Amino acid sequence: xxxxxxxSPQEDRILNKLxxxxxxxxxxxxxxxxxxxxxxxxIQRAQYFTESMKTTEGQPLVLRWAKALKNVxxxxxxxITPNSLLAGRAGQPGRxxxxxxxxxxxxYKVVMKDLHKREKSPFIISKEDTDLLLSEIAPFxxxxxxxxxxNHALPEELRTVTYDDNEGLKSKFVVSETSSYRSALQWVxxxxxxxxxxxxxxxxxxxxxxxxxxxxxxxxxxDKRPFYQAMVIVCDAIMIWAKRHATLxxxxxxxxxxxxxxxxLLEMAEICERVPAEPARNFREALQCQWFVQMFSRMEQKASxxxxxxxxxxxxxxxxxxxxxxxxxxxxxxxxxLEIMWVEMAQFIDLYINPTxxxxxxxxxxxxxxxIGGQTPDGQDATNELSYLFLKSKRDFxxxxxxxxxxxxxxxxxxxxxxxxxxxxxxxxxxxLINDEEIVPLYTAKGxxxxxxxxYAVSGCTEARMPNRDTYTSGCVYINFATAMEMTMYNGRxxxxxxxxxxxxxxxxxxxxxxxxxxxxxxxxxxxLLSKAFLQQYVVDCLRPEHFASPMASVLHDLCMKEGKDLQxxxxxxxxxxxxxxxxxxxxxxxSLSAIKKLVFEDKKLTMAEVVEAMKTDFEGHEDxxxxxxxxxxxxNNDEYADAIAKDIDFITQVYAEKYSxxxxxxxxxxxxxxxxxxxxxxxxxxxxxxxxxxxxxxxGTSASHGADHNGPTAVLMSNYHxxxxxxxxxxxxxxxxxxxxxxxxxxxxxxxxxxxxxxxCDLHLWHxxxxxxxxxxxxxxxxxPDSYRDLLVRIAGYSAYFCDLSKxxxxxxxxxxxxxxV
Length: 823
Hints:
49% of the residues lie in helices and 9% in strands. The protein is of the alpha/beta class. α20 links the parallel β7 and β8 (432-435).
């Protein structure tokens, strides 16, 4: 790369090989042991979980799950990373992933042999472990997994849009279920509860609930007794696991020759003997307690986006403040402890065995969000010293863990906003921004208590959770609406799938005389996919309680404890069920409809036959047609013509969602968060009427189509604003990526520009915003010479990943996003 352009701090560090290690020798020492290595699979969680489940068949599922977790806690190997000050991991040293055979153990024999060879996010597994997995673990689960049940349960009319094989391993990428490669959606625990009370007290509450049950009541003995028994057992499980780490720390200390390390290990032993059983007394104990809960929860279930960290600057702050004031802790020591957590966190890799799941989230995706900022439950600004410390750490210690999320509201302090802008300018994609002005009133309108809505935590890509109010856990459906566009052009068919009728036969588009006829045909295809998605999701919701339980998550949830119901239960009294379905290809569809309306039916510069013929050839020999289509009014430019179409598509989608959400008793809302799925979903979609080439990526979230946004980033924000149906409630997150050149935001003036943009975004009540601030030349150079750019971080969806860990298709997608040179 030439030195002709301005560089982001991240680019400067990489290109000029700047040293960031001074003062962080311990943290980098841990990171050097695993950074950029291919992860291994640790099978022990699967082994001991299965071992227990074999002995408890016929018992209530929540009780079986708690017993299995206790068996894991008693038998799984425990480790303390050399030089670390935190104890607890779910698998072997280095980068590792663990298995959940209850979800997908039926096809281990099909995929395990190739995991180390796959292009996207490979894993290594030893021959010995593979043999054990295939001879003892997988056979037990064959015929019992959730994946098999769903695959066999779907009616044929759903299978034709869901799977492209008999085994249900390969997605059709039209209406894709996501529930068969995770046991829960993203989740946030009430960490403050454990830190302040400890599991002994929580266990006593569960035991008291158990003792209060009427011994003569058949319903209480059948429905509630197993639940509370499971709560008592799972509290034992995590306390046993923690105490085993205390024993290990003492053993390591006895063998340690370095006196400083010996003292550290003995202190770790004392801490692990106390937490999480008893309340934390200081910052370090609080952090260790949180870490134990976070890691043990990963052994409990495969949450889709890993267990998020919640509002760390809120529940840790009293301990931080007290220790600082008493002289027991310095800012530097607190930073080191937090950064040790980040490098420990970076060793756990969310493993996707299912090939489709791996397509959906490339680059070893992770979303263990740490939420900072926002408001307190009484509506005051929540920013404190820890909030600033998290931002400073992100700038000083460039790592893709954790996924830092910042809540913004209309009264966010100027100083905090300035620090946020400086962190964004670093160029590694942190933090992502979430808007209180959109989420709090929307959640309140949907039934959340106002104080709890004010106290939400970011979870997953761009979602929000209220730890003691949310109760919906099922993985949700992804709908490729670009296929509805293609099926409108080919009478219910797609070129990728030949003559197979996938949608509705809405007629030959060349026979349509008016725009209204054409748009009506599109809407029929659109609604057909929606109806398939809602039916598919209802099947999912009905099947999952037969396969999954979450005793650890349940014991930390007030409503579960009160009602005596596992979190995976269909309906918990007092809970608010926030679900979603994914809209893929928003900009692609909008721009395609806009081009057809403008060029074919209004200006009559093209005939429908000319458009169809150009699409069939992927515009080869029809470059002039493609150029006209690409220059039609497009979403992302604050163009009333295109935005009106986008708003109407959102409107008809929400109208349907409102009607059938009521039928299900769940808020099933339209969401625009593709993660990386817009790339594989685009591979089944041929050329589209907006001039997009066949088999290339679809538009990303509510971002504009690649290269379609010509009027700057503010116009992109305004298009997002003008296409929202503010008077409707069946809406969820709108992921918005903006890519800026470092030149556009250099200096203090550039920092102020980012601050102004954030204020504007907040005032417009848009849900989400995140930035890539990197030169296109850097990305192109990194693609050609990955060894020189191994540490280059980029923002993908709701997470950042190392650019060189991504497939070429996803790298191209990021390269081709519009880079705004002015703000």
